[in-house]
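hey m, so remember when u said the tokens were messed up on ur end? i reran from scratch. heres the input so u can diff it against urs
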Amino acid sequence: MIDVKENTDGTLTISWDEEGPEHEIFKQFKTEDFIKVLTDYAKESERQSVQSDNYQQEHIKTYYNSESEGKEYDQGKVKEIYGDQGNQL
């Protein structure tokens, strides 16, 4: 696991288990490499967040613009479609 701590001066200290085989790549990393990885991750996270927000907004718009939203069910139509089970809806 990588541990990132923010120092009081605003800099970051990044540490990891240097003996862990899954962290072998970090032995070759320079400061610029860590900055690039963190920056790319932050950009991707923001992009996914925006996509999720857009999806939610579109879903809400679709729901509120649907014909059935806010309308009472026509019990006769429900019974016609679902039979007696329709009364359980």
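this time it looks ok to me. The radius of gyration is 27 Å. if urs says something different then somethings off w ur setup not the seq
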